[in-house]
# Entry
Amino acid sequence: MKRFAFATVSTIAIAAGSSVVAEPQAEVLHWWTSGGEAKSVAVLQEEFASNGGTWTDMPVAGGGGDAAMTALRARVLAGNAPTAVQLKGPAIQEWYEEGVLADISSVAEAEGWADVLPASIAGHMKCEGTWCAAPVNVHRVDWIWANADVLAANGIEMPTTWDEFNAAADKLQAAGVIPLAHGGQAWQDATVFETVVLGIGGPEFFQKALVDLDPEALTSDTMVQAFDQMRTLRGYVDENFSGRDWNLATAMVMNGEAAFQIMGDWAKGEFLAAGKTPGEDFLCASTPGDGYLYNVDSFAMFDVDGDDKKAGQDLLAKLIVAPNFQKVFNLNKGSIPARTDVGLDDFDICANLSAEDMGATSASGSLLPSYAHGMALRGSQAGAITDVVTAHFNSDMSSADAVQQLADAVANSY
Ligand code: GAL
# Structure
């Protein structure tokens, strides 16, 4: 693609001599507004600026990105898409099908992405064979975070089964500690739910229920048990949980008000941004059970006019996948690099555990896409599931009713 060759007068900078180049510009829509997230996205802003780019920030607050996706739709409908957008999983394909994504294959090929990205990640970044998104990281979703002092003071080890978790939570509650820091927002309910489904049902069941949407799995006794565990967890959250942002829940664990949080490793980004040390101040462990739920953040470029914007897209895509950014960004973000050739020596124990488990689960077939973070299903299907999960969590709905509603909602979501 010879984007630079067609720069128009309004978008060019006259370089020394007679050659002309477009100045890279990018308006970037993302939802990274918490302490750890903001520190992480600043790494990209700085790299973009130091490579001659001008960054226009379009942050849309709201964990999990629901508000950001609403803002995106409004912008695209108005015929004014942002240059680059934090977008992931099947949503990339959905936007591609609407014919609004730019093709970044020329950058991907020049930078040799196919050689440094695992095939499973590359698959999400491709649309009918062309590269349509650039991966930033791999977040793991199925984590429990704990306040180390609170556990020690109450004689509690990190739980390795859901029964152990419940026993620990009962003990903490009796001691006046909030067992589970949680924010009652639909995407946070969904995050906890998918770790429970994975833990109670196992990886094969997760695949059948929340990836393949098999009606038998959705209405099975195993799914009933998963909702039973959600009801138990509901009893461990404090009464002010409704609407709370995820990073405020993380802060409750940090300051010892609560013992545990079940959340992806962007929570680690919050602990780190607050100067906390893993293994000392806070503990990380995968949620009980086998498997690994992955959540790959990525950026897609939208079709925009102007060689400055196109130059901005190319530069952003190149920087995002380059080794330096993959390392520094992920040290802040709590995730691990998407590239396989970035060493993890400078990464902490939680990141190293994540990488190890990712390798092992990839080999055993239990590396699974997160439904709650938009990696497994189309938006309408994921939304249908989450509506039921949230309705159940916030009422006295029985588990039997919940599984029936789940199957009905999924059937109506196609
Ligand atoms: C996830 C996203 C993470 C983090 C989190 C909370 O969906 O992948 O990067 O930002 O939401 O906002």
